[in-house]
Amino acid sequence: MPSSAPAPQRVRNRFRTKARQFDDLYEDEGLVVRLLRPGLFRRRQLAVDTVGSYEAPRVLDVGCGSGRIGEFVLDAGASRYLGVDFAEPMIELARERLERFGERVELITGDFLAVPLEGSFDVVLALGLFDYLPNADDFVRRMFELCAPGGSIVGSFPAWSPIKGPARKVRYEWIGDCPIFNYTRDGLVRMFSGTGFDRVEVLSPGRSGFLLHARRA
Ligand SMILES: C[S@@+](CC[C@H](N)C(=O)[O-])C[C@H]1O[C@@H](n2cnc3c(N)ncnc32)[C@H](O)[C@@H]1O
C-alpha cells in the first residue's frame, strides 16, 4: 500500500534504492530490450537529434539520472551539460560516467524546483521525469524560465493504456510506493503552450507514451 509520505520524498526514495537497477536498463541494447523498452532508446535519440541541431548548445538535463543520456548529448556536441537530480546515487553514477568530459559537465544534487540554477540553456531535457511529478505545471514553468530564446525542450510522458496502465499502477504505486502520473496529447499541448512555449510537437511513438519537442520563441 502507498505510504503517507509526500510524493517527491517517495520518488526520491525509489531512485535512491534503485539507481543501479535503473542504470542497468541501458546496459543491454540488444533486440529483446529494444522491443521491451522502445521508449528508452527513442527518447535518447530525440535528445541527441535535438542537441545535434544546435551549434555547441548548452544543455540542462532535469532528472538526469545516471548520465546515460548526458553521455550521448555530450558526444553529440553539447558545450555545457548541467545535470540535476535529487537522488544522490544517481548523481554518483553520472559523475563516474561523465568524468571524461571534464569541465563541460556540472552535476547538482537537489530538487529541480528548489535548487538555485544559473544561466540559460539551448536545450532542456526532461526524459523519464514527468512520470513522477504531481505538479508538472511548476516544472514546465521553471524549465521555460531556464530555456534560452530559440531554445528547445524535449520531454517524455507516459499515457494511460488499458494494458500497461493498471500494471504500472500496481507495480509502482502499490508495490513500489512510488506515485506515477499519465498525460494526454491535448493536456500536454495546453500545458506547454499555456506556459509560453511555441511550436509544441507531440509525437506518439508507442501506445504507452508521448515524446514532446517545443521551442521558446
Ligand atoms: C526514470 S529516471 C530518468 C533518468 C534519465 N533522465 C534517463 O532518461 O535516463 C527519473 C529521474 O528523475 C529524478 N527526479 C524525479 N523528480 C525529481 C525532482 N523533483 N528533482 C530532481 N530530480 C528528480 C529521479 O531521481 C530519477 O533519477
Tell me the major beta sheet.
7 strands, mixed
SS field, number of helical segments? 9
Name the structural class.
Answer: alpha/beta
Instruction: Write down the secondary-structure element order.
Output: HHHHEHEHEEHEHHEE
**Ligands and ions found:** S-adenosylmethionine
Give the total of beta strands.
Answer: 7
Net shape = globular
Helix content: 40-55%
Question: Order of strands side by side in the largest beta sheet?
Answer: 3-2-1-4-5-7-6
Q: Could you state the oligomeric state of the chains shown?
A: single chain
Radius of gyration: 16 Å
Instruction: Give the averaged pLDDT, no decimals.
Output: 93
State the distance separating the first and last CA atoms: 45 Å
Low-confidence stretches: none
Percentage of residues in strands: 15-25%
Description:
It is a single chain. This protein is of the alpha/beta class. The protein has nine helices and seven strands, in the order ααααβαβαββαβααββ. Strands 3-2-1-4-5-7-6 form a seven-stranded mixed beta sheet, sandwiched between helices. The mean pLDDT is 93. The chain binds S-adenosylmethionine. S-adenosylmethionine binds at residues 8, 11, 15, 22, 63-65, 68-69, 84-87, 90, 111-112, 127-129, 132.
Topology:
Blueprint: H1 7-17, H2 19-24, H3 31-36, H4 38-52, E1 58-62, H5 68-75, E2 80-85, H6 88-98, E3 105-109, E4 121-126, H7 136-146, E5 147-158, H8 164-175, H9 185-195, E6 198-206, E7 209-215
Parallel strand pairs: 1-2, 1-4, 2-3, 4-5
Antiparallel strand pairs: 5-7, 6-7
The structure holds S-adenosylmethionine.
